[in-house]
Specification:
single chain, 7-stranded parallel beta sheet, 3-stranded mixed beta sheet, 13 strands, binds NADP nicotinamide-adenine-dinucleotide phosphate
Length: 315
C-alpha cells in the first residue's frame, strides 16, 4: 500500500479548514491523509476530527516553531488566517509570513493559501470614494491577505492562491441574518445595489480546496471559487421561500453600512463597495463552473438553504 500524502490543515476546527478536513476524511480511498491543526486538542471539534481519522496536532499560527513542527513530513498544507479573531491586518501579515517561511523549510510540495484581492491594486489610497482605514488599507481583511501572496512567492513555496467568497454561513454565525423591521417584515441588508455578489457555502470552500490538492498543475496560479453569484434581491427572495415569509432586500449604501458602528462595519462597508464598484473583475475571478469541476457536489444558495434555513436566526 502506498503511504498517503499528509495535508496539514490550519483552521481545521473552523469553517474553511473544517470543510477541507471533513472532505478528505470522507474519501478514505483517496491519496491524502489529514493532519488537523488546533490550539486545543481537547475541544469537541478536535476530538470529532480525531475520531473521524485525522491526526490532530497542536500549533498556534503566532508561534513559528509550532507551525514548522505541524508541517514536518507534510506533502501539502492549507493556510488560512483569522482576521475576525483580532481585527489586525498586521497580525495577518505576520502570520502569513510565518506560514510561508515554515512551508519553505518543510519542503511542502503544494500549499493552498486562502487569500483575497488586495483592494489597493484597484483603488489607490489616494482615491477618496471610500475612506482609508487603519492608515494604509481600504479593505483591511482583504488587503493583508492579498499583500501576503508575495511572501509565498518570495519563499519559493509551490502555492495555489485561492480567492474565496462571502460565506452563506454568515447568515447563521456572523450577524447577517434577516432582521424584523418596525412593520414586522424581515429585511436582509446587502449594500450591493443590484450587483451580484459571488458567495458560497463555507463547507464548499473546503471541498473545492480538496479538489485543488489533486491539481498540482494549478501551483503558481490564482484561482477563485463561488457557489453562485447573487444580488441582494435574489438572496432575499430565496430566503423568503426557504423561511416561508416575505424577506425584503434592504439596499443600504456602503456609507450607511460603515455607519452601523459595530466592530468591523467600516471594513465590511468598504468591502461591499469594492465588490460593487469592481463587480465585473470580482465575478470574473470566481467561476462557478471551475468551482464545480473541483467539487462536483457544489451547492447553490437554494440547496444550501434547504439544508440550513432552520439554523438562520430571525430577530
Ligand atoms: N466570513 C466570510 O464570508 C469570509 C469569506 C472569505 C474569507 N473569510 C476569511 O476567513 C478567515 C477565517 O477562516 P474561517 O472562517 O475558516 O475561520 P473560523 O471558522 O473562525 O475558524 C478558525 C479556527 O482556526 C483556529 N485558530 C484561530 N486562531 C488560531 C491561531 N492563532 N492558531 C491556530 N489556529 C487558530 C481555531 O481553532 P482552535 O480554537 O481549535 O485552535 C478556529 O476553530 C478570515 O480571515 C476571513 O477574513 C471569511
Amino acid at each position: 500500500m502506498t503511504a498517503k500524502k499528509i495535508i496539514t490543515v490550519f483552521g481545521a476546527t473552523g469553517a474553511q479548514g473544517g470543510g477541507l478536513a471533513r472532505s478528505i476524511l470522507a474519501d478514505p480511498g483517496g491519496p491524502f491523509a489529514v493532519r488537523a491543526v488546533t490550539r486545543n486538542a481537547g475541544s469537541d471539534a478536535a476530538k470529532a476530527l480525531a475520531s473521524a481519522g485525522a491526526q490532530v496536532v497542536a500549533a498556534d499560527v503566532d508561534d513559528a516553531a509550532s507551525v514548522t513542527r505541524a508541517l514536518d513530513g507534510a506533502y501539502g498544507a492549507f493556510f488560512v488566517t483569522f482576521f475576525w479573531a483580532h481585527f489586525s491586518p498586521e497580525k495577518e501579515l505576520a502570520e502569513a509570513r510565518i506560514m510561508a517561511e515554515a512551508a519553505r523549510k518543510a519542503g511542502v510540495e503544494h500549499a493552498v493559501w486562502s487569500t483575497l484581492e488586495d483592494s489597493r491594486r484597484f483603488i489607490p489610497l489616494s482615491d477618496d470614494r471610500m475612506p482609508t482605514l487603519m492608515g494604509k488599507y481600504k479593505v483591511p481583511h482583504f488587503d493583508a491577505k492579498g499583500e501576503a501572496d508575495q511572501f509565498f512567492r518570495d519563499a519559493g513555496v509551490p502555492t495555489t492562491f485561492l480567492l474565496t467568497s462571502f460565506y452563506w454561513d454568515n447568515l447563521i454565525h456572523f450577524g447577517m441574518h434577516p432582521q424584523r423591521g418596525e412593520d414586522g417584515v424581515l429585511g436582509f441588508v446587502l449594500p450591493m445595489g443590484d450587483r451580484k455578489l459571488p458567495s458560497i457555502a463555507a463547507e464548499d470552500i473546503g471541498r473545492c480546496t480538496h479538489g485543488l490538492f489533486k491539481r498540482h498543475d494549478l501551483v503558481g496560479k490564482t484561482v477563485g471559487i463561488a457557489g453562485e453569484h447573487l444580488s441582494g434581491a435574489e438572496m432575499a427572495a430565496a430566503l423568503g421561500r426557504a423561511l416561508g415569509e416575505t424577506v425584503r432586500h434592504l439596499a443600504v449604501t456602503p456609507g450607511q453600512y460603515r455607519g452601523f458602528g459595530f466592530p468591523g462595519a467600516d471594513d465590511l462597508g468598504n468591502m461591499f463597495q469594492f465588490n460593487h464598484d469592481f463587480s465585473d473583475e470580482f465575478r470574473a475571478a470566481r467561476s462557478i463552473e471551475f468551482s464545480r469541476s473541483l467539487n462536483p457536489g457544489l451547492q447553490d444558495f437554494e440547496t444550501w438553504l434547504s439544508r440550513n434555513a432552520a439554523r438562520i436566526p430571525r430577530s
